[in-house]
Amino acid sequence: MTNEKEFLYVMGYYAKSGEFIGKIGTSNDPFRRAKEHNRTYRKTPNYPMADGEEIKIFWMLPLSWLNTLRYEKLNKELWQAKGYKFLKNDRFIFSEKPSELTIRIKKEYVITLE
User: Fold this and answer.
1) What is the dihedral of CA 65, 108, 30, 114, to 10 degrees?
2) Which of 7, 15, 10 has the alpha carbon at shortest distance from 79?
3) How far apart are CA 15 and CA 93, in angstroms?
4) Partners of residue 104 on adjacent β-strands
5) How many Cα neighbours within 13 Å face the side chain of 52?
6) CA 20 to 30 Å from 28, out of 36, 58, 72, 85?
7) Taking the model in full, what pTM does it have?
8) What number of other Cβ atoms are within 10 A of residue 47's Cβ?
9) d(CA 34, CA 107)
10) With contact defined as beta carbons under 8 Å apart, do 80 and 93 qualify?
11) What percentage of the chain carries pLDDT values higher than 90?
12) Cβ distance 94 to 84 under 8 Å?
């Protein structure tokens, strides 16, 4: 195990179906991870990325590895409790792109999705 920071991040894209797909996750390199998601979510059978769409990073916060996992799980549960539909691979389906999302760490962060 290393002492390098991990990042908790929020990303999103528009699916071919027109819905906005929000993604919460962890990575030691969110920019590399976004490139991987661009490749993967173009081909996924569930809510593939719209033509010409790129996944966008809206927010990231460096934390310890264990804290990223803990807060990712907490926020997935909070989003589900708010009624956001959970989709495989830590994604959430929104009929329309929300103007903001809330992430809870020790305090609440309001993320603007513009």
Assistant:
1) 180
2) 10
3) 9
4) 108
5) 1
6) 85
7) 0.91
8) 19
9) 26
10) no
11) 89
12) yes
Vertex 42, ends 82 and 86: CA angle to 5°?
15
Residue 94 to residue 21: CA distance in whole angstroms: 6
DSSP string, 71-111: HHHHHHHHHHHTTPEEETTTEEEESS--SEEEEESSSEEEE
Per DSSP, what are the bridge partners of residue 56? 12
In angstroms, the Cα distances linking 29 to 9, 21, 57, 70, 95 are: 10, 21, 12, 18, 29
Residue 70 CB coordination number (10 Å): 14
- Contact between 19 and 93 (Cβ < 8 Å): yes
> Six-digit token pair at 89?
């691979």
Tokens standing for residue 27: 């990575």
pLDDT in tens, 49-79: 999 999 999 999 999 999 999 999 999 999 9
